[in-house]
Queue: 3 jobs
Job 1
Amino acid sequence: MKEPTPRALVAALRATGCATRFTKRLAAGAAGPAVAVAAAAGMTLLAVAQAALAQATPPGAADAAPVRAEFDGRWVRPADTLVLRVPQRLAGADLRFVAAGTDVTALARAAGPGEFHVELRAAPLVPGESEFVVWRVDGSAWEEVARFALKVLTSAGFEKSRFDPKLDLANKSTVDSNARGSAVPPPRPTYADLTGRGGVGFEFARDRFGVEGSFNAAGSSYRNEALRYGELQSRAPKADLADYVVNTRWRDTTLTVGHLSWGTHPLLLSGYGSRGLMLGQKIGSRVDVSLAAMNGTGIVGYDNFLGLDSEQHRIYGAGLGVELVGGRPGALRAELALMDASLESRGNFNVGEVTDAETSRGLGLRLSGSTAGNRVRGDAAFARSRYVNPFDPQLAQGGTSQAVARTTHDARSANLAVDVVQGAQWFSPAQPFTTTLTLHHGRFAPLYRSIGASVSSDQQLDRAGLALRLGATQLQFNASRLEDNLDDVPTVLKNRTDTGGVTLTLPPAPWRGADPGRTWWPQLTLGTQRVHQFALNTPVIADSGIAASHRPDQVNRSHQLGLAWSREPLTLSYGASYATQDNRQPGRELADFANLGHQVTLGLRVLETLNVSIGLNRARNYSVEKDLASYTNGGTLGFDWTWAERWSLAANAGRTLADDSRDLSRTVDRTAQAQLSYRFSVPGPGRRLPGQVFVRYARQGNDVRDNVFGLSSQGVNTAWDAGLSLSLF
Amino acid sequence: MNRRFSALGAVLLALAWLLAAAAPAGAVTAVNPFGVNVRASGPTTVFLTFQALDPGETAVEAFWCGELQPGVLATNPTLQLPFAVQTADPCVPSSVYGRLPLRLDRSRPSTSAGVANFTDVMTIPASVARRAFQDAQAGLNSAFFYVRRFTGGIGGDKFVIVTCRMTGGGARVALALMNVRVAFDGERGTSTVLAVARGEAPPPFAARIQYNGTGVLKGRWEVLMPGDVEPTEDDLLTEATLPVERRALQRRYTLLDRFEIFLPPTGEAVIPGVDPKRLPHLADGAYKVLLRIEASDDKEADSNTGGGRIAHAGGVAGFPMPVLRYFVGSGESLAALAVDPRALQLIAPAHDQRLGAGDALVFAWVQTEPTPLARLEVEVDGKVAYSALVKAGTGSYAAPPFVRQQLAGKRARWRVVALDARGEPAARSEWRAFAVE
């Protein structure tokens, strides 16, 4: 008989386990007669394996044998019993078992010689993938003996399974309010509103199928607080869908519905966030394709659920990515992007912007790559976009207006980063030295515009940077040149902007061996920047209205200093900034200013349950032309104190004084509020429901005196608020 | 179309137009500024004051055009002076680029030192600038005009003209906000209403802005708390978008911090938010973080309201500032309330104890109501760093050396959770802080 190899022995052992379980099922009648033959084969295999093991294992070989875990590489249920077999050399050793970062030794029992059962039923493990580590303890020393992959199914039998509903309801009310002086009285002196936020998050995965997602809604009984009040006013639903996303995966195909962010082309369609559909497909290991259809702008609300209701307000995109070098993703990747979009003049939800009706259709190419070790990396992109502003009834308002001509223009950009020195251990192994050179070029034709990318048209930007890093210490230089009016239209001003700057960042303990948590050495940031913007052409005044004083020639300098200390229980930071403006064009030579600002913030953990914060700021702005200095001085003081498990008190106050050297105006703002809250729980279905009650006093006042306009006002608003909240899930 | 014409013709036309169209005294008399630099490749916003309106005189429409009637243009051929107020439409009808959309119309009557003015916020959409640029590319005069029509005053309708000169949008352009996005950082920042567990600080946040001009941007971060009065649209506008006398009436909320940052003439900037730990997160309910922009002294944005009274309008914007929403509610810390903390008393390490290099890291506690198991939990930075299941009656656990190494130099906290026969929490202790050197 041929002597079995160790691999064969292990296989035989595993087969033994399998056959044993199979036999048990057979005995319990779980398997049908059709598998009886297989059972017999299993028994035979068991017998052969056991015989082989007995014959192949020489005396004493068990000492060198490894710890074996039945669950290694398999999915187990959270309350399963984990079976471990340890070799004879570990008999009598003090063994400890750590599963997923939890010492579960208390759940283990010896089930026989060299066999341990860890019974998770008493404390089920958290589903997911982690590790199971066996330690041998000798006194205070822990020695790792074995390590296994631990894969825990959910209670429902999925590899991943999660269903998290949440519903928070809160009553808030103003029980008393007062407006004195010129203060604007509140629209509702007293009121009681109900607000709420609910949602559900879920995730299920097994084998190659998975689905995950979330739905979130928010509401208020007071319509002015509804999510879409700004858009719909009195028609805004009081409870509304805030956002949702459902992502389904089957093998290499993904389908995403809801709020998504799509596009990787910086000039055509880049990270466009909206509601819609996206289908992605991987083809082999080197090709991926994706298609997307999205609403033209970010929206909320349960109507227009898919985001595709309006054909005039929709974005279609398609992308193809190919890894040109196999074996190393990202080595050299080519991407093709296509976009066809049409927008009505509607804004994104909760974004301040100036909108237009637009349509654009474009094609983009992008090539990105890096060398092995990432020493050289970069990307180049090109896009061609056909764009027009269609007829916009909001702009025409029933009249006629000149049409915008449809145009097709190009844009290009390229980035290159080279680690001239990469991770050199010249000074210390703990503080590698790296020098990185970065170059950027971008040229965006006049009138180039793509709906899906935030690109400023009609300009060329060239930028270079050099960063020197020693551990966390960094010194960075940068310089750029920006030119506009690329077609040199003679009646439009052409400007150039030269920018140069240096930034230094020093970590709290720049020297070797210092403990960042113990030193009083602050983190330091220092930056300086110079910007010079000036006109390059002189348009004829009669053809442009541009006179000499309208042509910019301005130099700005700005400097920043930041110091930050972080040492328990204290955090302290100081920031200073100084900026100057030097105008040089005729007639504006004195339109200059200097601005100096200081800011200090202090956070102090007085007790584990008591935090205090203090903020101070001062700014001085000096106008050379007016010989006027304007000042703003302010401060805030606040604390939060959870003095008992259920009680907390939080309060803060702020004061700001703005005035000037000629007493032209003076404004004082004061705010203060204090809030006491108590947490409780009430019996609910199956468990207790946590809740909270609070009472708050708020006071806000301001004094304004404007001697230029002859305005003077003094007002104070006060209010007593109270609220009750309950978390139902 | 070329706008050049003979000098003689111009003079004649100008005289005729002046006789026919110059406004009588008493109606709206002027606008300030009467000429502005605008961005050629994007939107522009400028604060304007139309001065000295008649009682009953109201603004009815506003529009842009690329070409003025020759007679009007002849009165000011270099566009360096204010145009006289006209009584007839001064624009060549075919050159109208568009009308001020209602959604961008922030105009309103204003009174300055007893004089009735009309404050306007001229927001030029990018499509209007695009029309003007295409005309300039075709060889026409690059300047275009904003015209406000007033009605109801003495002498009938009046038309007031503002000259817009096409430039790069940086220096010599009024400091104005063109695009503002406020968001929390990271993936959670994509939520419309960020859910925050009670006691958990929200993630960092910032405002990303695109702007015209250059100068100092002043403002403050405020927070609207449960129970506060909801801000109106006027409250959410930047201060410079309002007439001077209405600025002090904007409602204030709890101040988080102030900022005053210099914006170079490069068009994009990030206004960092405050330390997120300073955001209220202990009391349940809906919160809103507000970005309040104050009017700054920017010479390009100044507007003379009459009599030399200058309204500073640096930081004007044609739209309300977005708000950042978050909701403090259910979370692990709230669920913990469902069990009684008095059933477990922690002994060692003591509160805020600092363990030296030679001290053993041994956790000890007393459980008054025994359960089959207890779970010791050790957290660093809000995340479980290690845990251990301990049998009933044990009441102590010596941490392995690797846990000690993991905690070295950090501030940690620990607690004990008693588990019932099903492995469900039956009681939790309070958290207790400690540090390991």
Job 2
Amino acid sequence: LFVRAATRGEQYAFAVENIVEVAKPGVVTPLHDTDPCLLGITNLRGEILPVFDFGAVLHGEPLEQPGRLLVVESDGLRAGLVVEDVEAITSLGTALEPTGSELVPWGVLLEDALVGVVDVEQLCLRLVPG
Amino acid sequence: MSPDGSFIAVFIDEANERLDRFVERLLTVEAGTASADAVEQLLRDIHTIKGSAAMVGLSDISAIAHALEDVLMDARRTGTVDGAHVEPLLRAADALRREVAGAGSGAAAALLQLAGGLANAEVAATPQPAERAAAPSAPAARPIRVAADKIDALLGLVGETVLHRGRLEHLVRAETGKRHSVDDELDTGDRLLAALKTTATAMRTMPLATIAGPYARAVRDAAASEGKEVELVVTGGAMELDRTILEALAEPLAHLLRNAVAHGIELPEERVARGKPSRGRIELRAQQRGAFAQILVEDDGGGVAPELVARGEVEGSLVDVLAQSGLSTAESVNQLAGRGVGLSAVRVAVAAVGGTLEIETAPGAGTLFTLSLPLTLALLDVLLVERGGGVYGIPLAAVEEVVAGGTPLALAGKPQLDVRGAPVALVDLAALVGYPAPPARPGAPAVVVVHGARRVAAVADALLGESEVVVKPFGPLLGVLPGYLGAAILGDGRIAPLLDPEALVGRSGARAPELRREPPPDVPLTPKVLVAEDSPSVRELQRTILEVAGYRVVTAYDGRDALEQILRDDEIALLITDFDMPELSGIELTAAVRATPGRASLPIVIVTSRDDDADRERGAEAGADVYMLKRGFEQQKLLETVARLVDR
């Protein structure tokens, strides 16, 4: 099962086992002199959560309308991803096609839309500074 | 009576601590830097071990301590410890330590060792380091009697309570404004929270000094075997660190120190040829860096060979290179250190407790090993400031003062602020943290942040006040970010990044404040008894006996402390005091109480290991009501005595 999220008119799927929760983006405190993709940190029930602009991570451009916060985790590395919207939990079937992208290694046509399957482990590793 | 294991455990901790101090003091005698009262201090430690051991039923240990005491009594008569006696006294202390650890070869053997050593002292007056240097002793592990996860859960609750209290204060003030009753309740909450924090933290932590005691001996022995002159300086020894981490690092730190002696510090003649003092210096220090504690081992020796430094730059890090098995920084691998496997083991031990190891070196000037370790509960006193809509925390320890409405000056085209007659660079806080903000209003407050010898005046929009905050790390993904010590969650839910003074002023070595300790509040119950005793194990034993019997108990660690408590606390209904204590002896304390109007009739019981008629007479002359011996101590007898005296 996967959670579908949209950003910049594109759709992406995240395996549910990597999803911690979906929340509204709260107040994000910027940290200066850091990666431009890092919007800052937020208070997620008493813990500090780094918040990234998912669109900027993929495309290098800032998101225009942040809508939801997708909290993902892999191997103890936890990050908040700001996306425009989060849609239904869905099954992708088996018709996955390789894309050659490290962060989005698979694609699938779903209800006439192209959905990229995100490798959350690689994504989290990419987000580690340095 | 038959003391239970907890008293034995307290005794072992105490005896080890006193033996550490005993050895340190003997080394100052040997080095010719001992204080005038060194013999008295040596005697006091050994005497206390003797008395405490007798009280908890460890007669063998008491016997060894007694023999050591005899030797030191001779030294008291001459006013100094014969230099030739240092070595056998050190060996006797080793034997006593083994006996305390339960691994000794028996009291008889230890006594023979002491006697033999003293007899040979006349013909072997020089240190014999090689035998010990082969295996300098690391501090023995000290047991935790409460499961660590339970303490961690308690500490977690403390942290959450601090946050809760901040949120509550924010809400209450928003709803009701400043009302005295609300303020009083918040103050009460502060006091309770401080007591809870102190209690919980103390259960899980101990000061670096606890394990650092034996290091002076290890360095001394290692230096002697290498023909080097080395001074070990411990700073920040009072800093509280996680017990399990410290215990796990005791041997790795000993290795780093031996390594510094063997490979860092040069031979005296080499040092002199390089323009350095013949005596090398190794510093072991602890400091807080946000959510982390750092233990640093720094030497002023020759540094790591440039070719190894170059390899480190190519292969990733100098630690990687030096930790390779078989690689040594020394010209020859010796028994002290130098095997790369040693540093590899240090790195593994540090990583196992969630820490990191870094090395900095400067050829010809020295090497610095930095162990960064997670803190059990990272609390920090900060000044909260606002700039550009963001809130930031600056460690109070780094805040020298705040200047409001100062007139900027210019020096070489750069703005400066006159701070008590000295120009200090005036910089916008927004610029320091790299945040684009509109210019601050004229006359905005400037926070003078100091780090080492440098200062900077950082301009903020507003000062929000001082606060004790829980330092939250940025999490595993971000790890440690340059320029930040972590972040704090404020009462209103906002996050305040905590700024690193080092980054603000551009230099390293800032010290954060240590945990503030406050006594827990007393709860009124039954008659209050004051136990004045410098031995923690005896103090704990007596306190427990009395508390179980229903008495309120307060304790004092020396005579002066006891007298001050008696003068300020009218509820104290009885004093139980040791005979020999620092600052003010039990006899002096008793006499002082008897001479104090209003307190002269306070019942006083002396409990001591001094068993001769002259001492009994001194106790009676001073005004003690009862004189009891630690040897053959009986719980019931103490309780009967106390009951009789407080009820009369």
Job 3
Amino acid sequence: MDIIPTAVDEPRQSLWAVTAGPAIWAGHFLSTYIAAAVWCGNAGLHARFGSATVVFAAVTALALAAVAWVAWRGWTIYNHGEAVPSHHKDTPEDRHRFLGLATLLLAVLSAVSILYTVVAVAMLRGCS
Amino acid sequence: MTPDIEPLEQAPPQEVRQAQEARLHTAWNPPTGWRYFSEVNNSAVGMWYTALTVAFLVFGGVLALLMRIQLAVPGNTFLEPDTYNQVFTVHGSVMMFLVAIPLFEAISILFLPAFLGTRELPFPRLSAYGLWAFLIGGVFLCGSILFGAAPNGGWFMYPPLTSRYEPGIGADMWLLGFSFIEVAAIAASVELIVGVLKSRPVGMRINLIPLYAWYVLVAAAMVLFAFPSLIAGSLLLELERAFDWPFFDPTRGGDPLLWQHLFWLFGHPEVYIIFLPSVALVAMMVPTFARTPIVGYEWIVLSAIGTGFLSFGLWVHHMFTTGLPGISLALFSAASMAVAIPTGVQIFCFLGTLLVGRVVRSVPLLFVFGGLATFVIGGLTGVMVAMAPFDFQAHDTFFVVAHLHTVLIGGTLFPFFAASYYYFPLATGYALSDRLGRICFWLVFIGFQVTFMPMHVSGLLGMPRRVFTYPSDPNLNLLNLTSTVGAFVLAAGFAVFLWDVLRPKRKQGHSPRNPWGSGTLEWLPELPAKPWGLRSIPEIDSRYPIWEQENFERDVDEGRFFLPDAEELKREMLVSSVIDARPEQCLRISGPTYVPLVAAIFTGGVFIFPTFKMWAWMAVSAVLALGAILYWLWTATALIPEKDEKYIGHGVSVPLYRSGPSSVGWWAMLITMLADVSAFAAVVFGYFFYWTLRPEFPPGGIAGPGTLWPAVALALLLTAWGLTFAARRWNATDQATFFYMAIAAGAALALGGAASLLAGPWTHHMMPSQHVYPATVWVLVAWTALHAVVGVVMQLYCGARRWAGRMSAKHDIDIWNTTLYWHFVALMAVVTVVVVAVFPRLR
């Protein structure tokens, strides 16, 4: 399954691919928040995460791996062909590399944002 | 679209061009006299929209001045305490809902076609409908304060204050009035998204679109996911106020915090929905005055999209003092700081562009600098309040007032002023005064800082917001008096601006074409602009075609590009593909009509009559609104053209009619339904909010809707969905009998499904006012049942269209869109039934 296309013709391109990185961040953020809220709702405001830490770690590892994959795909697309930044020409190659770079940059931003979330969990390791 | 298309070598002969212009004139000329208000063209609608927004800005500003007079000295009696409550509530609500959001929509409707080099956006009547809805809703809300009946619970309407302690109609007005306006905002978003994705000139690939279009695309998409949450919240709160359904009443299982979640799930993205389109204007102005292309186009796109996403992870930072677990605060605190990264990136790109280029001084640039500086200050105090421990101290004080005004005025009002000076010639043909502009800038800038800087300090000294007075204290007295003086200086600056806008300008003569020497498409039209906008629709090779494409203005003016004519005397535009902007269709769009106005008036009735508990009138209004909308659809949409294809020049012919995913209507339906489903998701979120956090949900003694009726409903609705799908197939293969049978059976089953959904809670005697559980179940089933009924109207409409010869096997937009709608109904039916019938058993 080719979520992020590599060939330059239009039917194989999608704007959705550009938003893959931030979408993964959103999934990670929401699942972390909901898991923490449910855990703390049941275990009390001062509970520790204890064994639940494994869940957070697994979700994070999964999210980071997914983002890394998106970033790598963005990088491959960006490296395709001879076009040079700033991709301001009316050619399929420029458009292609532009989409690749946008995908890559957003994936990097998403990775950083995921790490921000991780820091919050790692610092507290509990509900408060 | 390879090889690249070049303009015609030779301009068409003079007499041909004149004949073309005459035809374009007939098609695009606005009506005169009173009929002018039946115009739906983006230039007229965008202009009225902007003017109306500025009028509301003046109204909100006057309210602010009243507050500053009241707070000028301690113990002042200028405003009664209750009047003060109304004034701050209406000020906040007007500035947010009637100024900040509509301003971006107004400016986009006015200028987006110019940015994209198209003559019009795909749904002119929808824009007009949004405008009239906005006018009606806005006047209704603002008028209430003159009768002392305005809402007074703060612009975020927290229950239980607004659910139990405000008997008047103020809160109802707020909830219903703003829901109405939010519907209008969603309508505008549909128009803008389809506009950016599908209305671009040939060659304007996705890597070449103006940055403004990127920002607007992101902001409009955010509207789809942010606003529905507030619409859902308003629905729940209004149900509690009108019928005592206890969603926010803890004594019956409800929870006031749910409102805060739903409100801020809207409220925080909203800040960026306001900010992004404003910074988009900056992104268009900076290259012009730096005389060089923008630095880091991709980085700015990153900025826009990244901010769009991250801003949905910030809502809890408005709820730091509500007693949520520390980990929730930490998560949202982290996201609040992460959003500073993309926000900062674009500012560095602007500064980089200014450093690389040769900067030309101008009034717009003054406002840009003033705005960036102010916004950065507000951004820094934003990072301060994003830290929970600091927020505990600053919460609900004037520090927050200072912070939010610095962000919003720096991020929105200053760019608006800049854009006003920059784009006034494009909108009206006349330039604003440079001298008055400078005076205005310094008054506004100094006035702003003098007003809001002291508020940081008065807030840290402990002065709470939303209190009509304060005890005499030398520090507070001086700070408040200073703020009041500053507010009047700011107002004076605004008065200078208004005078500049309104003063007669005939003597000064028209502005020259492209007065600032910009390189982007919007400056292509002659000034004053012709009613058709562009004489021919250009082929684009660059992000700055005026700078980089030779003889560009001449080629466009002489009709050497696409669509230089209106042979059939109809308003037409090009529809293009999403990624590479290949021309896909020549779309006929509607001309002047009063239908949107009539539809808006009756839709307004649906929202306004319930405020006064006039249910019968509301029902009448709903029927009339439905009638008006059906008339609108019947007479003006999916019209079968007299020929299949149209020649648009340069050897290219494109279809006049396309259906399914290639049609703009299908996209509009998809986008609308995304918003609709997000509102539904917000209601489902409510159910799970109670379900996860309350062990007594569902409560012991109260029966659920059972499984029988929900299961029957699901079976019927899914069959109706399948039949709709089959009807589309049978229509396409011209099997008319099967088509009509599928439509009729589908409609009947859908009605049965809707009734069965309601039968679940009905037969189990679930009383919505008894507890939040039955109330939530009722809301969910009623929501889905209502959607099924609307689906029936659409099915029958398709049947009638085919019967009347307005839909055929080849011309099948209506049934495609109806099928798309039914996909979403099926989704909602599955979710509703699983939630109400299965989840109670998992406890």
